Each structure stands twice: as C-alpha cells, then as structure tokens.
Amino acid sequence: MAILEIQNVTKVFEDNLVVDNISLNINQGEFFTLLGPSGCGKTTLLRMIAGFTRPDSGKILLDGIDITDLPPEKRPLHTIFQSYALFPHMSVFDNVAFSLKMAKWDKSKIVSQVAELLDDVKLTKFAKRYPHELSGGQRQRVAIARALVDRPRLLLLDEPLSALDARLRGHMHVELVKLQEETGVTFIYVTHDQSEALALSSRIAVMNLGNVEQLDKPQEVYSKPNTYFVADFLGKCNLLPAKVIAIKANRITLCVADILEFELEMDSLNNITVGQSGWYSIRPEKVKAKRREPEDAELFFAKAIVHGYYYYGEGTLYIFMLENGTKVQAMLANYKTEQASFFEDNAQVMLSFDPQAGSFIAR
After folding, report:
1. Model confidence pLDDT, tens digit, residues 231-280
2. Nearest-angstrom CA–CA distance, 175 and 182
3. Domains of the chain (ranges, CATH numbers)
4. Are 49 and 154 in contact (CB under 8 A)?
5. For the chain, the helix, strand and coil percentages under 3-state DSSP, each to the nearest 5
6. Contacts within 8 Å (CB) and 24+ apart, 80-83
7. Which of 27, 145, 267, 309 stands the most exposed, by the fewest C-beta atoms within 10 Å?
8. pTM
C-alpha cells in the first residue's frame, strides 16, 4: 500500500529542468532509495517531499492527503541531513527528547520513549554525554534516534553517511536496516553511492537528468538494467554493442561485438524488432576465464587474450580482448591465499558465460 504518492512533479530552477514530471509511489514500511549522480534531481525531489522546496507542478500525497502546499513543520515526517544538526549544548538524552518536550509529552512517557530509542541505537550509556564527546558514528545514531522518537510517517535521509569512513559506513548500513525494520517507519534515502543503495534498499529509483530511469528491487536494477545509463552507473559492467538478428517465440538471437552470436530469452518483446541495435549488458563477475573450453554445454565461450588486470583484494578484475579488439571485463574471485592473479598479460584464455546472466538494452 502506497504511503506516499508523487504525481507528475516538476521543478525548474532558472530555466534548468531539475525534476522532470516524475511520478512514483512509495509503500508503507519500505526502505526506498533515490540513487543518482550529483545534479540528477534526487535531493530536490527529497526537499519537495519534506516541504522545503515547492514543485512548479504536480502533487505530493501522504496517506492520500495532498501535502503539496503544507509547510514542513506541519508534515508528519523528519529529515536527516549530512550535518546531523545536533544541539551542541544539550546532552544525548535531551537532543533525542527535544521534539517530545516541544509537543508537551508527559515526562514519564518522554523518559520511556527516549530510553527505548537510545537502546535501539546502542547509546544508552552515552545518554549524559554531549555531541562533542561522541564519535561521528555515534552522532549519526543520535540524529537518527531524535528523528524517530515520535514515530514519524516518513524519515527522509539526505546522504547521511557521506562524512563517515568506509568501515563506519558499513557498520551504519547494518544499523539503519535494523532500525527501519524494528520501527516500521518508511525510509526515503538519497545517495550517489551505488553499493550503499544496493545494500540498504527495498527498492531503488535510479535518477538521471531529472528523470527516473529505472525503479525496481536492487537485484533487478543491478542484473537487468533497462538503460545504458543504469547499467554503466550501477557498478562495473560490460556494455557490448549488439544487434537483434532473429526473433522466435520469446527468444531473440543477438550478434554481439560483431563476432559473438547467441540466443537470449526475454521477459518481454515489446518494441523489439529484427535489426534493432543496442547493447548486451553483463556484469564482470558473471564472466569466467579458463585456459581451455568450458565443459558445460550451456555456457557460451569465446577466445580472448589478457590485456591487463587490477587487484581488489577479494577479487581481481581482468581486462580481456576478443579477437576483433573488443574488450571484456571479468571479476575473478581470489579464493587462494595471497592470490593476486590467475593469468599473465597476453596469455590466451577462453571466456565463458551464461547468456541469460546478461540482458539486452535497446538503443
């Protein structure tokens, strides 16, 4: 059931179309992420939901009620920005309790509600400390507890982890998902970090130039991108030029990189025609490499030579070159101790993959 409905929302700043007629629904209890590069319109869309920016056209409905013209303080939601905006002269307890005191809650209810939230974010023993006495991750958790203490209908988060180091961000990912599940509050999260979006989200809306290019579950957006932009933006991806040379039932035959030819089963053949050009998209971890042909008859294989590699710890990213000069990436897991590479430069290998592990993106 949709808790938030965004209907044909548009925003222009000084003749610059920032949000272009976007419509989408966000469901009750979702961890929903707006993902995209800087300038794609994701923060502007979040600010319109929060009430800090008014759309030029369109409507925003919360629980079926039009809140488009409602001021921020009248909306049953909270926003967390990168700065956290904690009160430096207040303790952790008082920061979290602030909105309840302003709403004139009973003192005993304030104490129990704040204690529950501090326990949820693992900050009970820090209740009497002040923000300057906390680490970055602890301050982040205080900001989240303060935003959740009165159980808003929505919690909006605008790149809240960007100031944290990589290890702490990973820890906070786990904490955020756990908090969202425990409280049942709908989270709308803005980020440009693809791995963060994949790890946290129930669904992801990938934005580009003011539009939503794809809206789906993380695994679908990653494995079956709808557009070249989504495939290229969301992690490493092989985007090989492809052309449809035959269609039969629910399968198409593709000519890929001018030398590879294989069949691909399609969920839908809408708007796909023989002769149509586009790209065959396949993630590097779906491509395997060996010194001989694969024994699995279901796999497609092709000859290639090693054209370089990059060591990433848990895996090594290889750049292979097909016989006509087309480059293909493969991420091979480093399952042996201290293994940095499988092949040397210019070594001849056989690449193999399941055609269904990739997808066709029409031009």
Report:
1. 999 989 999 999 999 999 889 999 999 999 999 998 888 889 999 999 99
2. 10
3. 2-229 (3.40.50.300), 236-362 (2.40.50.140)
4. yes
5. 25, 35, 35
6. 80/143, 80/144, 80/147, 80/155, 80/156, 80/157, 80/158, 80/160, 81/158, 81/160, 82/158, 82/159, 82/160, 82/162, 82/163
7. 267
8. 0.90
